[in-house]
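Entry type: protein chain
Record version: 2
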Amino acid sequence: MSTNSQAILWALLAAALFSAVIALAKVAVVDYHVLQILLFRQVFVFMSSVPDILKAFPQSLKTRQPGLHALRLIGAFVALSTGIWAVAVLPLTTATTLTFAQVFFVAVLAAWFLKEPVGVHRLGAVLVGFIGVIVVMRPGVDGLIDLNSLIPVIGAFGAAVAVIAVRRLSQTETTATLLVYQSVFIGAAAALPMFWYWKTPDLAGLALLVSMGVLATAGQWIGVRALRLGEASVVGNIEYSKLIYAALLGWVIFEEVPDKYTIFGAAIIISSSLYIYRREAS
């Protein structure tokens, strides 16, 4: 298998894990503030990074690209916080669908900053996938005229910035270094407002928050591996698979039954991802 093909498989797994996390966030945000949920998530990411960091401390924390780390952290904070906020004010499938604007942002930024080739076939797959999104979101649905729909779109741009930065940083920095910077600085940003927003979780709430932290940590490690192996614009196309995961989780957890538009749009999105996968595998 080519490195891009391997990256696609890892990206599919990461997308599944992140979809599970965002579905659990939709449950958690009823009782806990967005930043408290984000804080728990970053604590677990940090804990997972500590063993690797200690092996070569303090060299493991040294970086030659602090500016790129800062850009990545800003993008990641925007993406993570708006991702939780979006599912609090929008249906799970709607919030997930609007985040697919990230694919466009990644394709543009990858060509601009990383000088990656974005040929006709790859760009066509991105466009076809987004047509599937439009089918799901068909004109007139509340998510398209609600100002809340801007929340996941802003998050999508932040996520794209983070993806491009990680793609560049992953060539010179270890996964542990990338994650410890994120967990420390984003965790600190989320922790400061806890003087006002902290709510001590009960046993069920603690289990929910811990589960989110564990799944998010696994998704982070796997996502970085995908970006280390493959081109950002290829890995970014796999974001569309989150729609399928969101539809299934929405049905199982929230009793949301996908309509015919969702099913048809999902078929287009799957076809788009399979097309680019087969081209990269050949």
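Comment: The radius of gyration is 18 Å.
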